Amino acid sequence: MTQGPQVPAMPLSFRKAGETIMVTRVRGDEDLKHHLANIGFVEGSEVHVVSSSPSNIIVTVKGARFGLDTKVAQRVMTV
Predict the structure, then answer these.
(1) Which of the listed residues 28, 37, 41, 58 has the most CB atoms within 10 Å of its CB?
(2) What is the domain partition of the chain in residue ranges?
(3) Whole-number Å distance between alpha carbons of 41 and 35
(4) Are 15 and 52 contacting, i.e. CB atoms less than 8 angstroms apart?
(5) Nearest CA to 73 among 3, 16, 6?
(6) How many whole angstroms separate alpha carbon 7 and alpha carbon 59?
(7) What burial letters (b/e) apply to 43-62, b meaning 16+ CB within 10 Å?
């Protein structure tokens, strides 16, 4: 069975407003991964980017809106 082309994972911090993407992995220390998992950033969860700027990103995940610093958003890998 052949698969289509693989789309490389991209950090959430690189996403633009209006995009809806899926979380593939969260990188970082256990405390950060645990915190992000508690608010919905787990593998397979759908994330909608509400707005994005050089310093932060606002997203909706599991019906809740969150603002993340770009340093944290760089740890969330998406496709």
Answers:
(1) 41
(2) 10-78
(3) 9
(4) yes
(5) 16
(6) 21
(7) eebebebeebeeeebebebe
Q: 76, 57, 61: which is closest to 20 by C-alpha? A: 61
CB of 15 closer than 8 Å to CB of 70:
no
Cα separation of 41 and 43, whole Å?
Answer: 7
Amino acid at 61: V
User: What was the pLDDT predicted at 5?
Assistant: 64
**Structure token digits, residue 69:** 């610093």
Q: Whose CA is closest to 16, among 73, 64, 62, 71?
A: 73
Distance CA 72, CA 5 (A): 28
DSSP summary character for residue 19? -
Mean pLDDT of 6-22: 94
Q: Tell me if 23 sits within 8 A of 43, measured CB to CB.
A: yes
CATH architecture group of domain 10-78 = Roll (2.30)
> What is the residue whose two structure tokens read 């340093």?
71
